[in-house]
Amino acid sequence: MKKKKVFKYAGFCFMLLLLMVPKVSAGWEDMEVLKYYFEIDTGPRYQWPPSIAYNPIDNEFIGFWRTEGKIRDDCEEGDDYECTHNFHSIDGRRISPDGELLGDPIQLVPPDENEKNRPSLAHNIFTNEYLIATPTLASPAPYEVYISIIDNLGNIKYGPEPIYEGGKTTVLLPQVFFNTKRREYLVLYDDRNIFNSYLNNVGFFLDENAHITKGPFEIGNQVGDMYAQRLSYNWKDDTYLVAWEDFRHVAGDWTANCDIYGALLDAGGGIVTEVPIMDDAGMEDEGDQRVPVPCYNPDRNEFLVVFKDRKPSLDEEGIVGAGIVGRIINADGIPQGPVFVIIDEPRIQHWPELQYIEEEKKYFMIWNDFRNDGEPPGTRFYQSTDMDVYARWLDPSGQPVGDEILIADAVEWQMTPLMA
Fold first, then answer.
1. What is the value of pTM for the model shown?
2. Distance of alpha carbon 212 from alpha carbon 205, whole angstroms
3. CB count in 10 Å sphere of residue 15
4. How far is C-alpha 79 from the geometric centre of its chain's CA atoms?
């Protein structure tokens, strides 16, 4: 497949594809592409990975990302500090539904030498504000998640302030969710040494002014690391399903195969039941499961959890391959039927993202795909020189319907796709 060359900078940039889904039940053939591959920030520094939220009050999007690199790109030999050190900042931009950039660029955190991790944000429809969480990895410690409240134009009203100063070695991958029934935020992230020596799923409830009303509380307490947690909210039952990568069988070894576990939480963050979403440790076809994404289906009052699986049965010309698999979880946290394969094309499928579109009565899934990279079988994803983004509709049972949709196939890497 011939690639379209769109990058002119050496590094990652933040780009979007806008799609309009009809309000009547149709299919991809009746969707309209509003704007393809427009650039949000393509400066000489690296921009990655992004987070994005939709504001239904103003009918616009806002995105934030981590920027890193030297402050200046006009450096000469013997130049000053800004040309020789790596700086990190958190930047953002407002975007119209037509793909136009709104207002001025937003800088939530100005450049400094403390490493930043992926931000996460959620919109409050009552105050027309956002709460955004950003991990900052200072050297020396502490490493903390900082939270801020910004108005609808991106102006800072509160913060950045550490949500909790008890983390000691690692803080990663926050997720912020605003519960409109309770008018409160739920913030989750990974933290090591807050409850024990392992990486844990840590939760906080915050009021609309970013004051902690509960937390920190742990979500899962077994031996071994828990990583890459994601949540989905069941607004009918006022419960949350949290899913994560689980290393309970190989405590302390991140290179070993891991499983996918979850927990059903009540409205107060208490664990109703642990959910073994995928545990095949020691089985003949044992795999390595990663990056779970749960998604609530209100029409069936159940969840679909999708994740990457790398195992012998997902083979690639005789080499262990990787695809996207899924499992239905009932509203009470009980798995409904076995794990099933959704996408298993040549090479590797990775980093799924999933939303349920009520007007369509279907799920829409996007993912990173390596089928066009030309690498020999068995090449791991991080060794690939080419990464694309694909999409597909799934029916309510999680089965693919219609044709695959090629979202992005420019040269080099298009990674970690998101939807809002």
1. 0.90
2. 6
3. 20
4. 38
